[in-house]
Amino acid sequence: MSKRNKAYKIAYYILTVLLSALMLFSAYGSLKGGADVEAMMTHLGYPMYVLTMLSYLKILGVVALWQTKFPNLREWAYAGFFFDMLGAGISFMAVGDPASAYLPIFVMTIVLVLGSYVCMRKLKM
Fold it and tell me: Measured between alpha carbons, how far is 108 from 104 in angstroms, rounded to an integer?
């Protein structure tokens, strides 16, 4: 294995573990609920069942990222995470929240989702 492939492999695993942790913690927090979660959803104008649905889809997406039998399923998981995070950032923008509410979401989308995806494609996984 070349040095370049080794670097991509290390980056892939680091980024994918971080992305998986982010999605699982997000799903757990959303499913656990609480007044702050409900207040955020009300602030954004979404009903709570949307958050419940997204939480279960995030868990399934993490499973899809780590399975190796169906590469197309992994591609769909990356697309789902990309649109989930993009939608979250745009939702915060749409209600007039400050940039500190949505810029970290966009940065994480670029670094974690796109970074992991690019490394995966470079490794031809």
Answer: 6
Q: How far apart, in whole angstroms, are the C-alpha atoms of residue 27 and residue 56?
A: 7
Read off the pLDDT of residues 28-61 as tens digits, 9 standing for 90 and up.
999 998 999 999 999 999 999 999 999 999 999 9
Which tokens hold the place of 112? 């974690």
Of residues 69, 60, 59, the one with CA closest to residue 29: 59
What would the DSSP string read from start to end of 12-47? HHHHHHHHHHHHHHHHHHHHH--HHHHHHHHHHT--
Whether the CB-CB separation of 83 and 115 falls below 8 Å is answered with no
pLDDT digits (tens, 9 = 90+) for 62-89: 999 999 999 999 999 999 999 999 999 9
pTM greater than the 0.90 cutoff: yes
